[in-house]
Amino acid sequence: MNANAELPDLTSNVQGECALPHLGLIHAQGADAAHFLHNQLSNDFVLLPPDQARLAAFCNAKGRMQASFIGFKTSPEDVWLVLRQDLLAQTLKRLRLFVLRAKVVMTDVSQQYEVRGLLGDAVPAALGATPWSLHTDPAWSVRLYPAQGHGRALQIVPLGSALTTSALDLQDWLLSEVLSGVADVQAATFEAFVPQMLNYESVDGVNFKKGCYPGQEVVARSQFRGTLKRRTYLAFCTGALSAGEEVFSAVDPTQPSGMVAQACQHPVHGHWALVCLQNSALEEGAGVISTGQGASLRLYPLPYVLREDI
Q1: Are residues 49 and 127 in the same domain?
Q2: pLDDT confidence tier of residue 138, bands split at 50, 70 and 90
Q3: Are 196 and 259 spatial neighbours (Cβ–Cβ below 8 Å)?
Q4: Does 79 map to a domain?
């Protein structure tokens, strides 16, 4: 396996904005909104500054991710969570189970607001260059990790708002999601990964200094006791593939050596994915990684460095 191949330029001259129908929005409102989410998610929402957003995981007791969010505050009592639409209803139901006496109301507001993706020159200059920075005037915008050096952002606007820049093809956005190296959790990968398997500790998705949350002990043990055996990599595939699909090593084609975390079937650039692989699958002599249908994968370097010192 060669994870050092040079990545071709796939995003040159691609820019604009588009609606992201695969994403939805939850509004947490109330005096305890930030504290409640702080106690449920892998990141710090109590000390979240007004000019920053957070990537965060929602885990079960075994540390397996049931959802992932990009969250931000617009006031001390208003927290907004962007997540996959196919997990929204069940995630909202589970979060509500933990509310108990907390002063917070959780609401699906996907019918009132639209999540959009902004790429290239469409990204507001006011966001700066740092991932997870937040700008709230006039629209709520969150800077994401770039794709091949090209800026990316999420923007939340009232449903029905007109585009403010040129239209972007959704497939170009989906490709940029993969090229950014930051996968989200969707229905096909529900409870498949602990956060570090998706490299979340290296893209500011886990705070190891905050208090407890569901699965916290498992997540911390994976980080500090060296028990993590899987990582996510950027890959090109010679055939179609989809999130949740298992991949195999030629050394032992009977046992899966990884799983596709996120995939894009681009009409021009082909099949790209973020694939979570066993570390042993990348060892010298491990052989070719392929899908169950025999399509081979070629790995490329991640666009960020995996952190060793947290």
Answers
A1: yes
A2: confident
A3: no
A4: yes
In a domain, 307, yes or no: no
For the entire predicted model, the pTM comes to 0.94
Q: Same structural domain for residues 160 and 206?
A: no
CA pair distance 1, 257, nearest whole angstrom: 13
Are 86 and 39 within one domain?
yes
Digit-coded pLDDT (tens) for 230-277: 999 999 999 999 999 999 998 888 899 999 999 999 999 999 999 999
- Cα(124)–Cα(293) distance, rounded to whole angstroms? 42
- Is 289 in the same domain as 257? yes
Query: Can you list the alpha helix ranges (DSSP code H) found in the chain?
Result: 33-38, 85-97, 170-179, 216-224
**Calpha distance 105→224 (Å, rounded):** 35
Residues 122 and 67 in one domain: yes
First to last CA, the chain: 28
153 and 29 in one domain? Answer: yes
- CATH number, domain with residue 218: 2.40.30.160
Q: How far apart are CA 274 and CA 280, in angstroms?
A: 17
Residue 74 CB: number of other CB atoms within 10 A? 14
Residues 125 and 42 in one domain: yes
Same domain for 197 and 81, yes or no, is: no
Residues 162-218: tens digit of each pLDDT? 998 899 999 999 999 999 999 999 999 999 999 999 999 999 999 999 889 999 999
Q: How many CB atoms lie within 10 A of CB 136?
A: 16
Tell me if 152 sits within 8 A of 119, measured CB to CB: yes
pLDDT at position 279, please? 85
Q: Are strands 152-158 and 113-119 parallel, antiparallel or unpaired?
A: antiparallel
